Amino acid sequence: MATAINNEIEEPTASVRDHLGLLRELLDETDVVVAQRPTKKSRKAAVGIDDMSSDEFKAYKSRLQSERRARLKAQEAAGSLPFDAETTRDALADAALMLLYSGGPGADPVMNYLGKVFADKPGAPLTIAARIRTRALKPKLLRFPSKSS
Q: By CB neighbour count within 10 A (0-12 exposed, 13-18 middle, 19+ buried), where does 97 fall?
């Protein structure tokens, strides 16, 4: 049984279309539909920032800033807090106050931290905890749970 030797030299393919053509030949299919990727809609401006004159760039930046301020004003009117360093610190401080108020899991590390911060004032952490329990020290962004029991 002799086998036929294929002496044809394959040509290197340069693109995906060449691979698809080879695949069609192998499958003997000529009606294969090639799926094309949908075109992406870009949110970028049609004119690049680098192509703008200095006056156009200033107007562009001014428009973006006014849109940003309007968006922040609308969020504030809806009752949303701004996401900045001040409100983040307030939220974290409120979380620590609530932990100390409830005495739940995590209160001990907060007390230990207060002990390190006020190392030269040994009674400060206990005074802070007492003020929180009597509601003399209140959170800024949250409210204490009502006393119902």
A: buried
